[in-house]
Write a structure and sequence with these properties.
This protein has about 150 residues and is an alpha/beta fold. The chain has one domain. The protein is about 25% helix and about 25% strand. The chain has four helices and seven strands. It has helices at about 35-45, 60-65, 85-90, 110-125; strands at about 15, 20-25, 50-60, 75-80, 100-105, 130, 145-150. A four-stranded mixed beta sheet has the order 4-5-7-6. Strand 4, helix 3 and strand 5 (about 100-105) form a beta-alpha-beta unit. The termini are far apart.
Amino acid sequence: MKERPGDINLNMGVSDSEGRLFFYDMVPAAMSTFSEERAKELVKMGGKLKKEIEVPVTTMREIFNKWFKGETVDFCTVDTEGMDLKVLKSNDWTKYRPRVLCVEAVVVAGSAADVKEEETVANFLSTVGYKKAAITKIFGNQLNAIYVPKS
């Protein structure tokens, strides 16, 4: 934080509506999720469910309303282990339009459902005016996709 004092980092639950959800605390921790379905898949693949924790959740729209108050968001990353589309749909895309989005594009399992999720996210972002950026020479990673406004 000392190197980037202007950054805002929030450790909170995000979903498509405000309320409470169970958070599945997994081993490895990077696979933790609010998606019960994804947690079950991870256990089948050898992951371990450490515990379930009930957590308050909010929406992207409310985060932007509270923390950014009309300021432009330069960079927003969404990596929610199977909940990416729900989180993205929780934003008001007419009001809050980050300059760059980084979205987990492929879930580690690599199943057909995971490919469909990537296509669904890309299709949704296209409907709200974003396109996948062709910047693999600058940033390349098989797990994330970068999106920028179409115009």
